[in-house]
Write a structure and sequence with these properties.
Main location: membrane
Order of helices and strands: HHHHHHHHHHHH
Structural class: mainly alpha
Pfam families: BPD_transp_1 (PF00528)
Largest sheet: none
Oligomer: single chain
Radius of gyration: 26 Å
Helix content: over 70%
Subcellular location: Cell membrane
Protein name: Amino acid ABC transporter permease
Shape: globular
Keywords: Amino-acid transport, Cell membrane, Membrane, Transmembrane, Transmembrane helix, Transport
Amino acid sequence: MDLLDNLGKTFFDVQAMADVLPQLLQVGLVNTLVISIAATVIGCVLGMVVALMGISPSGWLRWPARVYTDLFRGLPAILTILLIGQGFARFSQQVFGPSPYPLGIIALSLISSAYIGEIFRAGILAVDKGQLEACRALGMGYGRAMRLVVVPQGVRRVLPALVNQFISIVKDSSLVYFLGLLVSERELFRVGQDAAVLSGNLSPLVLAGLFYLIVTVPLTHLVNYIDQRFRTGRRKPAPPVSGLREIAELEIVESARP
């Protein structure tokens, strides 16, 4: 019983969780979502550019895209965040002020754009080549055909993978705390960690973990739902029709003939 009591007091102290709950809701959750959504949006824009460069017929565009992708996919996320957050700190102070918040978003955007670029590239290449050939036969240029026909189909194919990438960004946003965020800019992990240090109890961190689960688990099921809808289509299959009705119709037609 002593072991269970110690575990309960260490990880599931209701009072410690109640004390940190307002900060997790008003500060941590808001900042985590802001960082994740901003990094995902910027990453999608950059990722599309990287994807189009990666499938370009010109080698001068393909090779820089390949190097960019290998670089930011190969480096650990925490190393990229520290290099950008500390390496551009002086420049950031002149533009954004003392807050390292924008640099954290930029670092996550660069990391996510490398992965999202590969996702977009795979989706675009999965589109049948006949689509592009048909567009060219209709007189469309390469750029217009890609913009209006090929790219939209490729993006639609990879929507589940994009949601998965957003889930990864939500979890990686916890690494931004290494840059030393201001009190009002702390994300879920940092709020929980600070409360755990002050209270000498790990319950605030457990509660922060529950918030991550609340955000990521529904998105995981959403990915499965979207993937299933794309595989089966939006229209429900029509119920089977008995062949007796067709036989009756044939008999009516035969009887009507002279």
